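pasting input
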Amino acid sequence: MNHNALPLFEVFIRSKRGLDHRHVGSLHAQGHEQALEYARDVYLRRSEGVSIWVVNSSDIVASQESDVEQFYDPMDDKPYRHATHYQLPDEVKNL
Amino acid sequence: MNSKANKQDANKQDIVNYAIALGDDSLTLGHRLSEWSSNAPFLEEDLALTNVALDFIGRAMMFYSYAGEAEGAGRSEDDIAYLRDCRQYRNLLICELPIGDFADTMARQFLIDVYDVGFYTELMQSVDETLAAIAAKAIKESRYHLRRSEQWIKRLGDGTGESHDRIQRAFNDVWGYTHELFEVDKIEESLINQGIAVDRPALKTDWERCVQSVLNEATLDTPDGQWSIRGGRAGLHTEHLGYLLAELQFMQRAYPGLEW
């Protein structure tokens, strides 16, 4: 089989309940169903997660290098938008 | 020893042999699948196939370890796997056949996965608690194996002209080995009557229905059962098992007792 002919999928794994899905990598598969199974076989062999998302890589729209000035620079001088002054209780592990 | 105790011992040995036979099915097929490691058509399938291989080898360990315990003669699962020759292996012949090409591997796998899902569903009801517990673990794996192999059959059958022809040929070539899946001898029949072993002949109708419906959907013909080969459970094997065991057992034969 010509491997290059298979579409590319991005894989997101939720490592445990309550946490977000995180991008863990990508793989080739013939379709969504097979991509899900390969994600299970490639990325969950050591009980790394409880839920999987797969997304056709071509469906991802990414910001470009040329967007930096408009997208990110304006935020640099607005510290009042950051929630940096809250005291976090010890019990809160993920925020 | 009175005759009742004799009978119990005989029955215990039958259970030991039954567990070993099930372990042999798992080990030989697991070993065959492991031959795809680093050789599969592409990386993702390589990892998926070797995962399946490991499921079967894990199953073999559980069956052998139970057999060793029940036997009480101090044999470990490694002793059972590495220190028996062909005639003492009791696996069904279909498990020992060479991997062939990807179509051969998948056709065999699909036929066994359908069988395993039926088999382990029933073994979960065994009055032997250990066998039932092993089955409860195996059934989850087999359902996933079947999901994978069933999709491959449809993908290859309903794919290109070449993939269709090659998967059809693979089914034709392996078909004669499937009859043995549903045949039992007197000893196994007695274990079935005691609620210990699975009534394999009774699995055949569902198996045929399931296989046929997938083959239909895959635009493949169900081979006609004109020829059949049997003998695995009696220790009569194809020429292929010797080569398999030569590779599997080499280290323990060359360096007895080697640990790592």
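fyi The radius of gyration of chain A is 18 Å.
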